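Chapter review: from sequence to fold.
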Amino acid sequence: MRITTVIAGLSGGGAERVCVNLANAWAARGWDVTILTVSQKTAASAYTIDSCVRRRDIGWPRGADRKELNANSLAPVLRGLHGVACFEIIWEMPLLAMLCYAILATTPNVVVAHIDFTNVRVLAAMHETGIPVIACEHTDTSQFSIGSWQNTREALYRRARAVVAPHPAIAEWLKLRGAWAYAIPNPLNAPPSICVERTGGRQRLVTLTRLSPEKRVDLLVRAFASIVGYFPEWDLEVYGNGPLRMPLARLVEELAPGRVQLRGFTNAAYAVLRGADLFVSASWVEGFGNAIWEALACGVPVVAIDCGAPVRSLVRDGIDGLIVHTDSTEALASALASLMGNETARNALAARASEVLTRFSFESSLEAWDALLDDVAGRREVRSELSEPVTMRHIDGFGLMSRSRPGSDRASW
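The token string follows.
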């Protein structure tokens, strides 16, 4: 099978990690895999890519040349956008033409696109090519808007051969808007067999997250600062980069100097989580929660604000972590204090945390992807075969969206 996966860049992030994990797994099977980035240019990937995976980059922004941008390349895209009245991205025609040219040059059986804006661009660019496109959403689309492109996304997702979401609740929301949506948990690699090594030094509260508004690290800093005086042996370590780094640095200096460290981006999550006593997430939106999964996989209990079904599927309240149901600084501070001051409770939660490895395993995710790719790349008219209502079947952590072929007991994805 020849798969071309398209993503804006590989400089770090949860979706980027998933993209690389899938590409590496497919290449290990002997498949012909290409990762096409839009604007990575010469920057190194944040994650290790198998040497068998081909790398291509469009080099955007740049001018298009004649072989990319011409009447033959523009006409199908324009017809496609006009057909669904999606005029918001007309001004991106040069990039759409470049995408189409670069993807066709890899002669794929199927294209797998990652992240909202790139998904929309790829679907627009591939109109009338006859090559099936799978669009991968990595956030909770029911909560996170992409502004003026929202209607365009919904219209073009209806053209995708499949839209993969990391949780059934997200897939259901997409399905109600006409997409052929499927839920497949993110394929994440298990940690080393020995991950948790607590040294007995200062106690570590850790978060790994993008420093952007939806992740609400400011709320976390305020919550920790409000109780820091009661727990002189605890520090908060924040790993990640983003547009709010400087404002957060000022907030830390104001509220908890010396007790909160902004450590920057890391691509070595398990090295960071080694020896952590507690993990925390204050985000108001998650698609899957990669960092939460990784913390649990390392046997680190989690405190997470309830931001929807994905977090509730990962964190089992009172079993391997605590879910904060009231969205406030005070509620988060109270939940943190209840575990920071109780080693017995932390250890009880930690003892069950690594069960996430079987609830959401790498293998079950790949199994679901195999079935989806078999249908999408193996039969051009998948939609006509999958005309009956969506059903559910249970695989590990939650029920995955499945559609059964008429007259068959086998589920296709």
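Two observations follow directly from the output. The longest helix spans residues 362-378. Residues 203-359 form a domain with the Rossmann fold fold (CATH 3.40.50.2000).
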